[in-house]
Amino acid sequence: MRYQHSRLNMRIPATVNGFGVLGSAMLSSGGAACAVSIWDRVRIATTIAPTTVTIRQGEYTRIEGDENLTVRAFRHVIDMIGQPQAGLEIHYGRAIPAYRGLGDSIAQITAGLMAARGFLGNPPELADATMHQLAWDLLDNVAAASAIMRGGVQLALPRGATPEEQALLPAANGGARERWIEIADLRPVQPLVFTLFIPDTEVSSTDLVTAARGATLDLSQVEIANTRAAAYGAKLLNSDADVFSNMTVTDNPGLLEALHPVIPATVEMVQWLRQSQVPAFIAGLGSSVAALGKVNKEIIFAAQNAGWKAGRVTHIPNGAEIVTID
User: Fold this and answer.
1) Buried-most residue among 14, 234, 245, 295 (CB within 10 A)?
2) Same topology for domains 7-186+318-325 and 193-314, yes or no?
3) HEC profile for 41-62?
4) Which UniProt keywords are present, listed alphabetically (predicted)?
C-alpha cells in the first residue's frame, strides 16, 4: 500500500462534552458529547523535508515538530498499517480556544488520524469502525471521540442500555471506562443550540482531573446524574422532558466545591446561570461553561461585561471532514 495522495485540506469541529453522566469529562466514565460549529482549518502535505507544524490562532503563531499531537496521531496510524513514514508540512489554523474544554486536543488528534487515512486512499484496513476505535483509544473519551468523528449527538452508554434505561443505572465512579462501550447516535430534527461562555483563563486538564477525583461523590446523586444524558436525548427527540429540572440535580455539590479552587470563576458562572434558570454545565476538561439553548441578551451582556466571551453555536450533523485532497 502506497501513499495515494500528497496534499489535503480539512476542517475539524469543536466539541461540547460533559452533559452526560456526572463528571464524565473529569472521570472518563462515559456521558454525552456533540460537535459544534467552531472549526479548526488544517492543511497537510507530505514532504521529504523534516516535519514542521505552523499553528496560528489570531495573531499568535507557534512552530512545532514531531512532538505535535496531529503528527503523533498520523504516525500512529501509518505504523499500524506498516507503511513508511513521510515528512509532513502542516498549517493549522486554530479557531477552537486552547485549554478551555472545547476539544482543542481532540481536534488535533483527529486531524492526524483522518490525514493518514486520506493519504493512504481510505484503505479497508482503516474503515470507519477502525477509525472510531483508534479515536476512542487515543482520546480516552468515547462520547467526545464519536462526536468529532461522526457529528450529531453521541451518548456513551453502559453495555446494552438505552438512554431511558441509563437513567436507572448507577454511574461509574472513575476507572470503569470499559463499561461505557456502546454509543447511541442521536440525530436531532432541529439544530441543538448552545450558548458558550469562554473565559480568558486557561486551565490544566491534569489539575481538573486531580480535583475531580478528590471530590466526595454521593452515589445517590451520581445515579440521579445519569438522567442528564437521557433528558437531553429526550429533548432531542422532541419530547416534553424537563431538561432544567434534570440539570439542576446533575452535579454533585461536592464536585463543584472540589473544582472551585482550580476554576473559581467557572464554577461561579455555572451557579449564577442556574440561579437564573439556565441549564448550564462545565464544558469538558476546561474553564468554559455551556448552556443548552438560547440565553437572553441581558445575561450575555452581563457575562461579557465581566470579561467572558459569550456566543451561540449549533450542533453539526457531520463531524470532521476532508474538504479537498489531491
Assistant:
1) 14
2) no
3) EEEEEEECCCCEEEEEECCEEE
4) Amino-acid biosynthesis, ATP-binding, Kinase, Nucleotide-binding, Transferase
Tens digits of per-residue pLDDT, 206-234? 888 777 776 665 544 544 444 454 455 55
Bridge partners, 92 (sequence order):
42, 55
Report the length, in residues, of the chain: 326
> Distance from CA of residue 302 to its chain's centroid?
27
The residue behind cell 495515494 is 4
Distance CA 169, CA 148 (A): 26
Cα gap 141→118, rounded to integer Å: 23
pTM of the model: 0.84
283: cell is 464544558
Whole-angstrom distance, CA of residue 96 vs CA of residue 37 = 10
Q: What is the pLDDT of residues 141-190, one digit of tens each?
A: 777 888 898 888 777 665 555 555 555 444 433 333 444 456 667 676 67
| DSSP designation for 101 | S
Tell me the pLDDT tens digit for each residue of 245-292: 545 444 556 677 888 899 999 999 988 988 888 878 888 778 999 887
What are the C-alpha distances in Å from 185 to residues 33, 34, 94, 143? 10, 10, 27, 10
Residues ≥6 apart with Cβ < 8 Å to 104: 14, 40, 94, 96, 97, 98
For residue 23 the three cell numbers come to 463528571
**In whole angstroms, what is the distance from residue 230 CA to residue 308 CA?**
30
Say if residues 39 and 21 touch (Cβ distance below 8 Å).
no
Query: Is 90 exceeded by the pLDDT of residue 95?
Result: yes
| CATH, range 193-314 | 3.30.70.890
Q: pLDDT (tens digit, 9 = 90+) per residue, 38-78?
A: 999 999 999 999 999 999 998 899 999 999 999 999 999 99
